Amino acid sequence: MKKSYFILLMIICIIIVFFMLKITLSQSTALKESLKMGDAIVYQKKGIAHHGKILSGKTIIIDPGHGGKDVGSTGQNGTLEKDITLITAKEIEKKLLEKTGATVILTREMDQTVSLQKRVEMAEEAKADFFLSVHYDAFFTHDVKGITCYYYKWKDKWAAKRMNEYLFNSGIKTKDRGVEKGDYYVLRENKKTSVLLELGYISNEEDEELMNSQVFQQQVAKAAVEAIIDYLGK
Ligand SMILES: [Zn+2]
């Protein structure tokens, strides 16, 4: 009897140890996943290369401005810049993948904090052919509206001009604020061709309404893709 009790006790011990090990292992996996989430994750997608593979072999970075702790500017009707930049970036990504065969990388794919330095490093690491940063503007008075296309380095002015032309040929109804030199980190510190779009004033009621429309988002995406093809596809 004593011996069988001992064996039973051993079996119970083995079962307990087994379950403890299992719990420890699953906890460490969860930790690994959350660490990965905390870091800027590189999302890389390859486009379906039909339509003559116009940009196959090219890598394009789309950079949705702000995110996570950095909200950006806030509209009168509650639009947050970090949310609307992500919507636009994903719309551009979708069109690029559909039309060009390019590899597309987003600097963030969710509401997360990514430093400006990291965003530029991603362009460098991916050997990007084009870096497009998406922002929405704000001003302390509510009357200012319109879209501005920024470049920093002289060599990138032509790319910014293409963006401006395609945006305003697409039928977008807001003020054309032209092409300007902008001292933005993601342009200044970027070795790759880089353009930053300020796609309307979140502080202006009409622009805010416009940027929240599906039509506008699609017009922007179409124009951005056409401008990138014009710039890289030759
Ligand atoms: Zn911004």
Bound molecules: zinc ion
> Structurally, how many domains make up the residues?
2
Largest sheet: 7 strands, mixed
Q: Order of helices and strands, N to C?
A: HEEHEHEEHEHEHH
CATH class of the largest domain: Alpha Beta
Number of helices: 7
Question: How big is the Rg?
Answer: 24 Å
How would you summarize the topology of this molecule?
Layout: H1 2-38, E1 43-46, E2 59-64, H2 81-99, E3 103-106, H3 116-125, E4 130-137, E5 147-151, H4 157-169, E6 176-181, H5 185-188, E7 194-201, H6 205-211, H7 214-232
Helix pairs in contact: 2-7, 4-7
Bound molecules: zinc ion (ZN).
Zinc ion (ZN) is lined by residues 65-66, 72, 81, 135.
Can you give a write-up of this model?
Strands 1-3-2-4-7-5-6 form a 7-stranded mixed β-sheet, with helices on both faces. Helix 2 (about 80-100) crosses helix 7 and helix 4 packs across helix 7 (about 215-230). It folds into 2 domains: about 1-40; about 40-230, Zn-dependent exopeptidases (Aminopeptidase, 3-Layer(aba) Sandwich), CATH 3.40.630.40. The chain has 7 helices and 7 strands, in the order H-E-E-H-E-H-E-E-H-E-H-E-H-H. Helix content is about 45%, strand content about 20%. Mean pLDDT is about 90; it is low at about 25-40. The protein starts with a helix and ends with a helix. The radius of gyration is 24 Å and the shape is elongated. It is an alpha/beta fold. The relative contact order is 0.16. Zinc ion binds next to loops.
